[in-house]
Inverse folding.
């Protein structure tokens, strides 16, 4: 089923806040456990008629746990199913001791067990969604206004959607206004109809193929109805996209604000809550002034994607690779990064040359964001005939000058040597982007007598052994050199000879291999470039 869901449908599910249902979630596993327990308890009750001491509860509980564990294993043993399986076991244990089946204690025990078995689980969004949602359900059970019947159903969904807003905003950078209504319809439809029909179809398939097909057809029909309903909701009220990705501090502040909404102190709700929520839209870095720009060399493996930001404009230089099995760096890294820094428009998408590791993700960037100018070799885009990159083109954004230096019009050669070379000059420094050019293109640039001097040099061809000739380095005279290469790549990039060549010139070299994504801000301070792994170190980093 998941494989048949299109990219547009996935986006629809995210926009309406029901994407959590389109997986084997804890809700589905819990449903299976309860169903098996009820059936096993009914069958075991018959044995009590002949053997009054028959352990009805124990047999039913063991049967439910066994089937639930098998179901979780067959469906990938995801974090929500692990959590639910542990909590079902704790719930049965609590019942034998006359304790509450669902409590904060059982939730904390389940979290502790999961983190003990796999500490890295705490880094996944699924972990926080799974445990956070259930913790909020327990919280609501204690503090929310008491209603009955349909009012309780509506109240639960509205409050839960509101309290989950900080988590969804932090994870997906968008907030769904239709989530309460969408979930009120989708949860019972998926849990009580679509998933049971799919499971019944799987169970019947070996013996009754026609009945199995009928179950799957009914499930597909229900799914189509749900998609139409969600599309109508999304058309009426779209999601709110946050301007920037909230920081961890802002996330915690907004979560506290949501919890305070149920506080009995009116002053907190009126004054403190709006102030904390406004932090979601606060910028994370100081804005760029006229003449300043920033380079972000994204960690895209053995490929290249550079984001150049000025005060009000954005240039994307290359977009990483497309993978043979499906998906690409453009959709998985470039677009999320641009949205995270609040750039909803790309003023120019420039692809240096047609190799997959540079051009593979371009189509996804074009499809996901508003793109102004497209500059690329012929054949890279199916959506639009791009402008060719030719030497001599210049333009300015916010006091920053951009100039293409290579290739010359009608110049021939292989793809690498025809890479688009761009020089970016701001008030406080200059950067040179070189794509995958080789010695031939370097000699052509030197012969053209253009000014190559730059404080920041993007090392060509991922730091291969031939990067770069001594004459070219002398002409550029970089202060910092940046390399985009994959961790433990099979080519050994950046080569040790390259590191040595830059070291001898007194140029400091930075590589995504060691640092992850690299950022350098060309402002009045021209600070040393820094990598993500320097500023956000994990305890396992060397």
């Amino acid at each position: 089923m998941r494989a048949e869901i299109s990219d547009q449908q996935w986006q629809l599910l995210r926009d309406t806040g029901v994407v959590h249902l389109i997986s084997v979630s804890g809700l589905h596993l819990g449903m299976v456990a309860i169903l098996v327990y009820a059936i096993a308890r009914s069958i075991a009750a018959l044995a009590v008629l002949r053997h009054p001491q028959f352990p009805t509860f124990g047999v039913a509980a063991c049967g439910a746990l066994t089937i639930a564990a098998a179901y979780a294993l067959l469906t990938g043993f995801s974090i929500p199913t692990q959590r639910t399986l542990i909590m079902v076991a704790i719930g049965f244990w609590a019942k034998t001791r006359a304790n509450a089946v669902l409590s904060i204690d059982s939730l904390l025990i389940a979290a502790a067990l999961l983190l003990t078995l796999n500490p890295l689980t705490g880094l996944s969004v699924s972990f926080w969604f799974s445990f956070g949602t259930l913790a909020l359900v327990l919280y609501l059970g204690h503090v929310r206004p008491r209603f009955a019947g349909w009012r309780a159903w509506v109240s639960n969904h509205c409050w839960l959607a509101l309290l989950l807003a900080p988590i969804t905003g932090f994870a997906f950078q968008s907030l769904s206004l239709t989530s309460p209504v969408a979930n009120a319809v989708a949860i019972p439809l998926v849990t009580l109809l679509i998933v049971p029909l799919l499971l019944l179809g799987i169970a019947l398939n070996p013996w009754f193929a026609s009945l199995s097909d009928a179950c799957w057809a009914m499930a597909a029909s229900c799914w189509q109805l749900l998609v139409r309903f969600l599309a109508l909701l999304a058309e009426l009220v779209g999601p709110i996209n946050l301007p920037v990705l909230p920081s961890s501090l802002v996330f915690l502040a907004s979560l506290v604000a949501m919890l305070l909404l149920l506080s009995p102190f009116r002053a907190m709700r009126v004054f403190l809550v709006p102030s904390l929520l406004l932090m979601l839209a606060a910028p994370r870095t100081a804005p760029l002034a006229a003449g300043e720009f920033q380079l972000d060399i994204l960690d895209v493996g053995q490929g290249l994607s550079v984001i150049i930001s000025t005060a009000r404009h954005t240039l994307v230089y290359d977009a990483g690779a497309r993978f043979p099995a499906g998906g690409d760096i453009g959709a998985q890294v470039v677009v999320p990064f641009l949205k995270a820094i609040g750039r909803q428009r790309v003023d120019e998408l420039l692809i240096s040359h047609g190799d997959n590791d540079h051009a593979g993700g371009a189509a996804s960037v074009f499809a996901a964001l508003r793109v102004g100018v497209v500059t690329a070799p012929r054949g890279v885009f199916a959506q639009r005939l791009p402008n060719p990159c030719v030497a001599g083109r210049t333009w300015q954004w916010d006091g920053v000058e951009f100039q293409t230096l290579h290739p010359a019009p009608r110049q021939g050669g292989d793809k690498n040597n025809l890479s688009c070379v761009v020089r970016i000059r701001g008030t406080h420094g200059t950067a040179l982007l070189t794509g995958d050019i080789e010695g031939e293109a370097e000699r052509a640039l030197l012969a053209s007598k253009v000014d190559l001097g730059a404080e920041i040099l993007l090392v060509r061809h991922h730091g291969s052994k031939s990067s770069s000739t001594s004459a070219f380095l002398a002409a550029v005279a970089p202060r910092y050199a940046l390399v985009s290469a994959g961790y433990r790549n099979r080519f050994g990039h950046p080569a040790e000879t390259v590191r040595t060549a830059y070291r001898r010139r007194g140029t400091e070299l930075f590589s995504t291999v060691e640092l992850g994504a690299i950022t350098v801000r060309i402002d009045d301070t021209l600070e040393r470039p820094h990598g993500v792994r320097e500023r956000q170190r994990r305890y396992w980093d060397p």
User: Anything to note?
Assistant: The longest strand covers residues 400-406.
